Protein 1
Amino acid sequence: MNFGDIHAAGAPILMAVGGCVVLLTDLASKRSATRKFGTFLAILFCIASMVCSYTLGGQLRTAFSNGIAVEGLVVTMQILLAAIAAITIVASSEILQSFHLPKGEYRALILLASAGAMVLVQSLDLVNAFVGIEIMSVAFYVLAGYRRAQAASEEAGAKYFLMGAFVSAILLFGIALIYGSVGLAMKANGLELPQGYSFTNIVTISKAIHQVPGFGTSPLFLLGAVMLIGSLMFKAGVAPFHMVAPDVYQGAPAPIAGFLATTSKVAAFTILMRFFTILAGADTGAAINVVVIGLALLSIIVGNTGAANQKSIKRLFGYSSVAHGGYIVLGLLASLGTESQAAAITAVTFYIVAYAITTIGSFAVVAWLGKDGEDADAISAYRGLGKRNLGAAITLGIFLLSLSGIPLTVGFLTKLGVFMALLSAGGTWVAVVALIGSAIGLYAYLRVISEMFFVDSTQQETSSTDGASKLVAVSAATLVIVMGVFPSQALLPSFEASVTAPPVSGDEVK
Amino acid sequence: MLSSYIPVLVMVAGATIVALALIGLSALLGPRRPSASKDSAYECGVTPIGSARERFPVKFYLTAMLFIVFDIETIFLYPWAVNYKASGGLMFFNLVEMLVFVAILLVGYIYVWKRGGLEWG
Amino acid sequence: MSIPLNYYIVLSMILFSLGIAGVTTRRNPILIFMSIELMLNAVNLSLIAFGRYLGDAGGQMLTIFVMAVAAAEVSVGLGILIAIFRTKDNVDVDVLNGLKG
C-alpha cells in the first residue's frame, strides 16, 4: 500500500469523491446561480479522473494486493467512461430543468455509477468486480426511475431493479462456485496459492485452468463460469435477459437512457474481455463456446427483428443495443482462440468505443427534437423531418447508417473488424448467421430514414431550445464520419498501441 | 460422522410424538361446549378492534430502509476491529482507512438529515 | 466428525433454486425481493462453507460484502417501490405493463 496504489485506483476514487462533493455542495446551496456551479464541479471531477487515468500510461501495474490491475485497455475505457459521464451531465440540463428534477442527486448518481463502472473495469479480483458492478447497478436503478412523477420511468426503474437484483444473485453464485472449485482443485493437486493473490483472483483462476488437468471441464467450474458470463452479459443488455433493455431505454429520459446503454456495455464487456483472456487456449470443453455463440446469435436475431417494426424510437435503440451487444459478444468469442485473440481484443475495444459514441449521439438527437424536455419518442414524429429540420434529419441519419453498418461510417469498420476476427478464429457459419441478422436490422434503420426523407408530413416544426443536446449530437455525428472515413490515420493506431493483453496468461504467475 | 446426530434425531422424533399424542388425547377426551366468548381471539382482556392485518403507512418503509443501510454497514467494523491490533506497522493507515469509510457513511447521513428523511409526518 | 462439504453445497443449491422459483412465480415485488434475498443467502452459505473447508478467509470476506450490498439494494428497491405505490396505490408486477412493443 503506497501512493502508487492510490494513483492506480485514482480514476474511480476521484469520481466517487466527486459524487460526494457534488451532493454536499448541492445541499448547501439554494440559489440557481450555484446550481451551475454544480455542473462545473461535476465536470471538473470527470476531467480530473480522465487526467489521472491518462498519467497512468500504458504499462501494467497492479495495486491493492493485486485486487486491481491497470494497463492500456483499462486506461482507454476509464477515459471513455469519464467522458460519457461528463457528456451526460451536460446533455441532461434541459430535462432536469423542464421536469424540476433534483439536480445535485442526478450528477452525484452519474458520477457514482461511473465510479462503479471504473472499479469493475480495473478489477483483477472477482470480489472487486462484484462490488464495482453493484455500485454501478444500484445507481442505474435509481437513474432509470429518475423521473418519478411519470409512470413509464418508474416502471422502467422497478423492472430494471427486480431483474438486475435477480441477475446479481446469479452472478454471485457464479463467483462462489468459481471460488470453491478453484480452491478445491488447487488443494487436491497440491498447488500453492500464488503469493499475494486470493482464490477469487483472475490470476489464480488462470493458474488453476492452465495447470490442473481436467479443471476446465469440471462441472462446478463450468457452472460457475457460465453463470458469471451470462449475468455479466445481462448487465451489458444481451439476450435472453434482453426484455428489460428496451423497456428501460423507452421509460427513462433520453440522456439517461444513453448513459445506461453505454456505461453498462463498456464496463461489463471490458471485464468479460479480461475473463476471456484466461479462458483462451484452455481446455474448457465445448460448454462455454456453445453458451457464448448461443447468446450472441440470439441477441443479434432478437435485437434486429425486435427493432424491425417499432413505433418508439427509443425502443428501437433499445433493441439495437441488444443486437450490438451480440456483435461485441461475437468479438469476445473470437478472443477465445489463441491466434485471433489480439485482433479480437482490438476489434472489441474499437467496437465498444464506436458504439458508445453512436449511442450517446442517437439519444441526444431524441432529446434535441423533443418539446419541453419531453423526448421525441414516436417514430411518426420523425415523418418528413428532412423538410422541416434538415440538420437533425442528417444527424440522425448518420447514426442510423452507422448502427446498421453502412460503409463510410464507423459502424461498418467495427462490424468488419469483428467479422474478420471471427473468420480467422474459424467461425464462418456464425458470421453468416450474424450477417443475416444485420440484413434484418438494415430494414429497421432504413425504415426510419425513409420516414424522415421520403414521406411528407403536415407537422409543424417547433423550435427546440435544447442546445446542449444539439451540440452533443452534431459532434458525435462528426466523429462517426471522421472515424469511419479515416480509420487508420485517426484513431485505430492509438487503440492498437493501448491494448495490451491483461497479465493473466498463467505463466507469468511468480 | 453422521452417527453423532442420531441422538438429535431421536430427540426430535420423541418431541413430535409426545406433542401429537397430547393434542390428539385432548381432542378425543375433552368435552366441547363452545360459546361466543370462548370463540373470540382473546378469551380475556380487551376485545380486539378490527383486524391486525392492516396496511402500514408507507413511512415505515422509509425508516426501515434507512435503518438497514446504516445498521448493516457497521458489519465492516467488526472484522476491522478484530484485526486492528495485528496490523502492526500498518496501524495508522488502517485507522485512516476506517475513518474514510465512516466519513462516506457520514456523507449519506448528512444527506438524509438535510433532505428531511428523518422527519415523521 | 464434521458435515461433509457436499451437504452444504447441495443445501445451498436447493435454497438457490427455491429462490429462483420464487422470483419466477410471485407477483408481488416484495415477495420477489424476498426470494432474491434467499438466493443471496444461499450464496453466502456456500461461500462460508467453501471458505471454512479451504481454510481461507476470502469466502467470509465476500459474504460481508454481499450483506452490505444486499442492504443497499433493499433500500433502493424499497425506495422505487414506494414511489410506484404513491402513484398507483398498488405494487403488483401486473400493473407494470405500460412499456410494451
Note: The first helix of chain C runs from residue 5 to 25.
Protein 2
Amino acid sequence: MRALIVEDEARLARNIAKALKETTSFAVDISTDGEDGRHQALSNPYDLIILDLMLPEIDGLQILKHLRDNGRRVPVLILTARDRTEDVIKGLDLGSDDYLAKPFDMGELIARCRALVRRTYDRPDPVVRVGAVSVDTSSRIVTCRGKPVTLPAMEYRLLEYLVLRAGQMVTKAEIIEHLYDFNSENFSNVVEVYVSSLRKKLDPGPQHRLIHTVRGQGYLIGEAPQ
Amino acid sequence: MKPLSLKMRLSLLVSVLALAVILTVSIVAYVELEESLLNNVDEILRAMGAGIVAALDKHETPEKREAEFRLIVSNGVPGTSAWYRVWVDGSEQDLFASDLPPASYKGLFLHPPGNEQPEVGESGFFNLIADDAPDKRNPNRAVWMRHASGQDVLNILVGRSSHYVYHELSEFYRLLLIVGTSVTLLTFMLVPVLISWGLRPIARASAQLRRITHKSLKPAGERSEVADELKPFVAALDDMLARLYQAMRRQEQFIADAAHELRTPVALVKSTLQTARLRPRTGTEYETTIDEVLQDIGRLERLTEQLLSLARLEEADKQHLATGVRLDALLGEMVEIFDAQASQQGGRVILSTPGAMWVRGNATQMRQLFSNLLDNATRHGPPRATVRVTVEDGPDRQVNVSIHDEGGQIPPEAQAHLFDRFYRVDSSRAQASGGSGLGLGIAREIARRHGGDLQITSNPQTGTIASVRLPKR
C-alpha cells in the first residue's frame, strides 16, 4: 500500500508517516505544499491520500476537486484544523472519503486509513483468507495452516497487496508502484526475490503453489477467475 | 412626560390647520354674503326711490300716482311691501304716504335723523332702528332721496324690512357651524388613518429591522419598496449593518484563524507523543521527542502571548498613552538583550541614537512593539548579519525609529500581506522558528494607537527596513 500525506506542517507529516510505517504496511510520500501535492497525487497510483486543507499555493479542497475532476478514485482523508460541521460537509461533498479534525488521535487516524484501504479493495473483513493462508491486515499477523508466520516488513507488504487483490493478475509494475515510496531504492528484480521468499514460507510444495507466476506479465495469488 | 406619538402630533397639526382654513373661509364667506345681501336691499330701495322720482315727474292724477307708487313698492308678496313718504322740503305735510312700518320703527321713518339728510339729487341710506329697544342686529333699512322738482325740493323716503337678510345670515351661520364642525371632526378622525397608511413604510422597515439578529446581519440588497424620504435613513441603516457585518465577519475569521493556529501546535505535540509511544524507543529518540515537544510548546506559548496581547490591545483605553516614555533608554535595554542573543549565532544588534528622546505612550506596549520588530529582524535576517536600530528626529514633532536588517528580504508578493493576521512569509520556515503571524499586526496596531505608524520596505539591495513613526511628548 502506498499513501501520500499533503501537509504543510512538515513535522506533523513526518510523525504521521512514521506512525503509518510502524503500524501498517504503507509506503509513505510527503508533500508540504499544495502545488507539489497536487502534482504528486495526480502522477502516482496512491492507495490513500491524507490531505490538509489550509496549504500554501493551492488549497486542499482544490486538490481534491482536481483529483475527482480527473477521475481519480483514490480514497482521500481530509485532516484539518477546520472542525466546523459546514467544513466537514463541504469536504465530504467535494468527494473526500473521510474527515478528521486536528488535534487528532494517531491511533484513530491509522485505523481510519486501514478502513479506507479495505473499502477500496472491497474487503470488509480485516482478516483476508486465501487458501491455507490468512492475513490479518489490522494486526499484520500472518498464519499459514494455523501456524503464525513471521515475515519481514517488505515481504508482508507484498503479501498484503497480493491477498487484497487475490484472484487478480498483478503486474510487476503495479507491485513496484504500490510498495515503494520515493525514498526507497527500488530494483525490479527485488520483487522476484520477495516472491520466492514468500513461496518458501507459505507454499505447501512445488505442485500446489499459492502465488502463481503469469509468464511475462506478473503474479496471481489464489484461484484465478474461471 | 411621555412625548406625543408622531401620529398624534401630525393629527393635531393637520386638524388645527383644517380648523383654521375652515374658520377663515367661513368668516370670509359670511362677510361677503352679508355685504351682498345688504347691497341687494339697498339696490332694491334705490330702484324703488328712483321709480317714485320718475313717477313724480310724470303728469298724472294723484290717484294714478298713488296706484303707481304702490305698484313700485310692492314686492308681489302681500305684507312685504315697502313703505314710502314723499314731502316737500319745509312742509310738515306728506304729499304722498303709504302705510307706516310697525310701531316701534315708526319714529325714525316719520322723523328721519337730520344728519342722514342727503344733498339734493343724491340719496342716503340709513337703518330704521326700533325706538324702544334699539335692535341693531335686526333693523329695517331706508333710503332718503332729495329731488328738485321746479322750485321745490321733494323728499322721498322709502323704507323696507331687511329682516330676511339677518334671517338668511343666521341660517348660513348655522350651516357653517354644522359643516365646519363635521369637517373638523372628520379630519381629526381620518388623519390618523391616513398617517398610519403614510407611515406604513416605516412600520415595514421596523418589522424588517426586528427580524435582524447577529446571525442574519448580512445586509439586504436593493430595497425597492422604500419611500423616497426614508431612503437616506434606510441607506444609513444598511451602511451600519454592512459595517457591523464586516466587523463580525472579521471577528469570526479571526476566531477561526486563531483556532486553527492554536490547534496546529497541539496536533503536533499530540502526534509527536503518540508516535513516540507506538513502540519502545531508545534514549536518544526520547530526547528528540522531548525537544520537539518543547519547541512546539514554545510556539504555543508565544502564540498565546500574542493572542492575549492582541486582546489586551483591543480593550486598552487611550488613558494609558498619557505617560511619557524615554525611547532611547528603552531601546538601549532591548538592543542589549537582543544583541546578546544574536551574538550566540554570530550576529549583532547595534543602536544609534542622538540622545534623550521622549515619546508619548505606554512603556509596556512600546516594549512589545520593538520586541516584535527586533525579533523579526534577528530571526528572518541572514545569519551573522548586523541589525541596525536608528533613532532620529522626524518632521512634525515625530520620532523615527528604523530597524534595518541587512540582506533580509521579503518577496514582493508577500509584502502586501505582511500585516495580515496569521500570515507568514514562508510558512514552513516560520513555523520552525516559531513565528505566530501576529507580531507585525500587533506592532502596527500599537504604533497607530500611539498616533504613529509602522511601515516595512524590503528589496534585495537594501534588505528589510521596519520604520516606526511616533509622536514626541
Note: The radius of gyration of chain A is 18 Å.
